[in-house]
Amino acid sequence: MQNGKLEDRELTKGDRIRFNVKNKKLGVINGTEAQVEKISQSRNDGSLNFHVVLEDGRRLNFNEKYYNSFDHAYAMTVHKSQGLDRPGFRRHLRAIINGSERGVYGEQA
């Protein structure tokens, strides 16, 4: 679901997804990212079951019927990236601002 509309997405094992809506039962908030481990079809109704690994290592299973507010995580808007503080992100950003690739890998702080 993107912008309140359901849209088809092609996902496969290894793809990264971003959850767009908080869900206490799943333990995810807007912006939580995960990697798809497996996608299987429900025997009951043919809906899809997603088996993912969250960034913190937790494994999570959910069915698209009960949670469908996620999308690919390969890109994000500037607004989504505000406040992002992942390991190496500042170093990478500094290298981009300085116009060099030198700081991206192995820079000593």
Give the arrangement of secondary structure elements.
Layout: E1 16-19, E2 33-41, E3 48-54, E4 59-63, E5 70-72, H1 78-81, H2 89-98
Antiparallel strand pairs: 1-2, 1-5, 2-3, 3-4
Quick structural overview:
With 109 residues, the protein is α+β, with helices and mostly antiparallel strands. It has helices at 78-81, 89-98, and strands spanning 16-19, 33-41, 48-54, 59-63, 70-72.
Radius of gyration: 17 Å
Helix tally? 2
**Beta content:** 25-35%
Structural class: alpha+beta
C-alpha geometry:
globular
Low-confidence segments: 100-109
Written as H for each helix and E for each strand, in order along the chain, the element string is: EEEEEHH
Strand order of the largest sheet: 4-3-2-1-5
What is the count of β-strands?
5
Share of helix, binned: 10-25%
Major β-sheet profile:
5 strands, antiparallel
Integer average pLDDT? 76
Spatial gap, N to C terminus: 40 Å
